[in-house]
Amino acid sequence: MINKITKKVVKEVEQVVSEEFVCDVCGKKGNYRSETCGSRYESAIYYRVTTGHYDWGNDSCDSIENKDACCTDCLLQIFSEWLNDKDVKCSNSAYIHIDKECHIREKKGGTE
Ligand SMILES: [Zn+2]
To answer: Ligand 1: distance of its center to the CA of 99 in Å?
Structure first.
């Protein structure tokens, strides 16, 4: 017979327990507020900037980039960098798209 030798193995698994918004410009975390979301959730307002161009036909989807800004100052920095980008200056079809978004997360220790 074959004796099975067993050993307990503990695997470490990384799990997302909470998400948060982090600004791509200044690296600040979102300013989460709970006034409008009740007791269980809190939210942070941010700007999602999408840039790209249509210069290469079907491959243009590769040109799409996203950046998130926490405030109007950071948004203006992204915008002025985009305006001064040499690829943007040379492009006939560059675009910049700005969405105001809200990141909602569950509050730590929140009640139902
Ligand atoms: Zn910022």
So the answer is: 15
User: How many CB atoms sit inside 10 A of residue 36's CB?
Assistant: 10
Distance 50 CA to ligand 1 centre (A): 16
Task: Give distance in angstroms: CA of 79 to centre of ligand 1.
Answer: 13
The pTM score is 0.74
**Between the CA of residue 105 and those of 13, 32, 102, what are the distances in Å?**
22, 9, 10
On the 0-12 / 13-18 / 19+ scale of CB atoms within 10 A, 61 is exposed
pLDDT category at 37 given cuts 50, 70, 90 is low
* Helix, strand counts (H, E) of the chain: 2, 3
Q: How many angstroms separate the alpha carbon of residue 68 from the centre of ligand 1? A: 8
Q: How far is the CA of 52 from the centre of ligand 1 (A)?
A: 21
